[in-house]
């Protein structure tokens, strides 16, 4: 059976146990109250059942971590302690737990082999003695170990070692009362998409511009002193005299230039609404049947 660390099996395990985190809890021997180590983690099977505590037994063996079956453990969440019947000799015999190593059937069998107690049987039953009879000395019975049961990886289940995994046999049993509660979470999902782009449209534009064009006007006029004698100057009666005049005209220069017309700003706003949900939840309450006995309630 595959085993998982508690945080790997249930990342929200602290909400499930509704108590102190089992990690970091001190481990003490039952009866002597001597601290032997600290809970490093816990291993859970695929059905969610606690099977082992990973205990750092540094108070006994520096740096060694071992597996401690839940049936050999009593947890006091109020005192933040775990009590066990583990002995130092067992801690020395247990295989060391290494991070990342597979906890398979063979490894568990090594662990269980250390914790399993040898079973004994009597070779002859005790004989009943009458109250009126004379008590005779009874020879001691021969005690022989019962053959160890055989285990098979294909058929093994944890019920075969109930004393290692059954926590209901503890004298200080704890009943946990659970209740359900509604947890409201939000999930963000995409409902659509708005695509905003631009394209180019064309149109024919017309513009009017006035152009100046020069032309020569030759006008022959009669001067005011026409017919009167004048004194000739150097230009009189000279051939080849030419007058030059530059003629200009304007031509259109039409070109295009781009300019910024406007800006389009795209933003998002969030509209909020409240959604009501209703569900039936359960809550456990304690039933006490004292059968006429006096029970102290705290």
TrEMBL record:
Residues annotated as domain PRC-barrel: 16-90
SUPFAM superfamilies recorded: PRC-barrel domain
InterPro entries given in the database record: Bac_photo_RC_H_C, DUF2382, PRC-brl_dom, PRC_barrel-like_sf, Stress_Response_Assoc
Recorded coiled-coil stretches: none
Listed GO biological process terms: photosynthesis, light reaction
Domain DUF2382: residue ranges: 175-288
GO CC annotation: plasma membrane light-harvesting complex
Pfam families: DUF2382 (PF09557), PRC (PF05239)
PANTHER family, sorted: STRESS RESPONSE PROTEIN YSNF (PTHR38463)
Protein name as it appears in the record: DUF2382 domain-containing protein
Species name: Cyanomargarita calcarea GSE-NOS-MK-12-04C
